[in-house]
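Ticket #4471: structure output looks truncated?

Reporter: J.K.
Steps to reproduce: submitted the chain below (311 residues) through the standard prediction queue, then opened the result file.
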Amino acid sequence: MNGADTYDVVIIGGGAAGLSAALLLGRSRRRVAVVDAGKPRNLRAEHIHGYLTRDGIPPAKFLELAREEVRSYGVELIDATAEEVYPDRRVCLDGGRILAARQIILASGLRDVLPDLEGAHAQWGRGLFQCPYCHGWEYQGRALAVLGTGASSVQQAQLVRQFSSDVTLFIHEMADPDPQTAADLASCGVKVVRGRVRALVAGPESLTGVRLENGELAACEALFYEPGATVDTSIVKTPNCRMSENGCVSTDGIGRTSVEGVWATGNAADPAAQVIVAAGDSYRVAVAVNAKLIEDDLAKARNTTAVSPTK
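Returned output as attached by the reporter:
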């Protein structure tokens, strides 16, 4: 394409999902570019957990090792923001550079929408967390709490209870539990506090508590919360790109979106995918993308043979 650098695959997003796909495609001898804006979803987290052989590794170190691996297979890493994806599979970067791709993989992840509480942004990844599996072990035995936002907060409180006998569910925005749910919470030792939370109160190393709207201070050292999340809409403006009810890009069973030649993986397609899951799913998507490239190469070869003059 005129004025554009051409690749077999352009991957938008250089986290675990994007780099995992890049690794397989690079090893498949495809020309691959990974575009990354340098703002991973887990930027504020101190460690990655649940990733076999990498448990406890800082996110920045994980990405450093992953980037080194994919570079060894000739993958080009581009530090930039993908501003738009055009229907003809051109990707416009900030600064004006245009990349043309035979196939595009959206692996840009999500942006978490934090609660409108004083101190929430400062404490995200420090004392305010999403995932008990990622952070519960480090806070075991302490005063823990869950910020109620909906019915799933009850299940989250029951999960947090595995890590401490001192767990509080702040009703906040969720409806009062029905009698059976209230009894279930009481039976497993989860305290229920009604009223909205106004602010997070930080200590030198973690939270010391939350302040309710009535001014009461309730002690807790870690608050768990299920944030809303949004896909970066600037890269899903492609016409006919369908979105799921959960706000992510809608895909079929192998990662194809509703737009021809555009795939999605990781948190861009699944908000619940942890790092190891995003990496594994992306390996599978990369296999499907490479198969599509082989199919297209074969079709091109057949057409070329069909139009060749007879000797």
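Triage note (M.O.): checked the attachment and the full token line is present. The chain is about 25% helix and 25% strand.
Status: closed, working as intended.
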